[in-house]
Amino acid sequence: MSQIADIKNPWRNILLGEQASFRGVIFHVESGGRSSGRRTVVHEYPKRNDPYVEDMGRVARRFQFSGYLVYRPSNPIYEYTSQRKQLYEALEDDDIATLVHPVFAPGGMQAMCERFSMVESRERGGYTQFEMQFVESGKAVSALGSSTNTKDNVKISADKAEETGKGLMPDDAED
Questions:
Q1: Between residues 140 and 45, which one has the greater pLDDT?
Q2: What domains sit in the chain, N to C, each tagged with a CATH number?
Q3: Can you give the pTM of this predicted structure?
Q4: What's the rounded Cα separation, in Å, for the pair 93 and 113?
Q5: Rounded distance, CA 78 to CA 69, Å?
Q6: What is the rounded CA–CA span in Å between residue 26 and residue 69?
């Protein structure tokens, strides 16, 4: 007689292959989602039926996970209450950290937890459910190397304009 564990499911194999974690604290995944899109500005003009849509770049990627921790006396490696506290503190801690999810972030990515909730109930003793929302960290603008020194650019343009203007003016010595 075959068991559910004997059924070959590629998605299930991916989930079982790598543990999900945040700041190195492991949790199990029940479900997950990812959202993204484009930032746009829609220009609508009077007396025109056609709008003009301007692309302003990609929206930050966001991830939503329903995860859980479960107490298993047969597995002494994970002490349930201490792991629950560690995950709670990891999600609440400030700044970015490594998020690992076998489907959405295999190998890990830098992210920040935007919000989370932790739910426990008497009926499901030894089971804590976490609803977590993360946002990719990206890079600071200065880290991209695209800084503009406006003051110097204006001075250079003004100097060039002055030189061009002097070249167009008649020389007083010739008069």
A1: 45
A2: 4-139 (2.40.30.200)
A3: 0.66
A4: 8
A5: 9
A6: 9
